[in-house]
Write a structure and sequence with these properties.
This protein is mostly helical. 80% of the residues lie in helices and 0% in strands. It has five helices and no strands. Helix 2 (35-61) runs antiparallel to helix 3. The longest helix has 27 residues, at 35-61.
Amino acid sequence: MVYLIVAVVMGFFVGNNHRVQSQVRGSIGAAYANPTLGLMSSLGSFAGWFTIIPAAVIVATARHYGFWDGIFFVAAAFAGAFLAGFPFVGIGGRYILSVATLSVHIALVVFTYFYFH
């Protein structure tokens, strides 16, 4: 059950980051005021699924878990990405969350590894 919560959080951050990146790139002249924040958001957008897949493999290879748990992990990540489309976080909050995507994903992969091994 814990791995599904982790997957939904990871998926939410991926979906949120995708939504912010599409808003930033879709508007003429819209960008992050701080170039470092823009770089962190772009890296989070790039690395989102590259951290979800290793976490799913960690879950699938853990003792008392199996292949289907890894598939459920990826499905829960898709559900979290779908949840990011709902407007319960304001625009300013979305920009802050998109910057934190890479850090959150790395922390959750490390948590998943130590929790399941």
